[in-house]
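Take the subject:
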Amino acid sequence: EAAIDGAVTAKANGTKVLYDAGGLYDGIERLLPLTDILIPSAEFAMGHTGKNDTKSAAKAIFEKYSPEVAVVTDGKNGGVMYDGKELWSYPAFPVEAVDSNGAGDVFHGAFAFGVQMGYNYRKCCVFASAVSALKCMGVGARESVPAFDDVIEFLKERGIDEL
């Protein structure tokens, strides 16, 4: 109920609502239509839609709830972004992972940061994926969140310098 009230208030005040859809909770269908940026896990997207793959699930969840964008995260497999026009797979960055705890939360926070920086949704996916990969290289959900400059350097080392 609190999340629904918060989303209604945010939208009424011109604020975008980003939802980290990770669990299949009772009543979630009431919150999803209030979402501008819907970022479900592959497990949530496929479980909620009954689809067998992330691409079909991204399209189905987008068509059902009409967010600006649906971004399905799939861990070390990267993920899929769908905005009603383009279905696009974004990469996961292979790293020597030592602790993946918090990687999804870091992805969502980095995506929201990218939106605030004015990145388009494709760039937000790449940026968030890089932040999540770097986080996994250290121990601790919070302690290992990388600095912005480290993320930019990480991307440049991989031939991505468009941010």
Notes: Strands lie at 18-21, 37-40, 69-73, 79-82, 87-90. Residues 2 and 110 are 24 Å apart (CA to CA). The chain is about 45% helix and 15% strand.
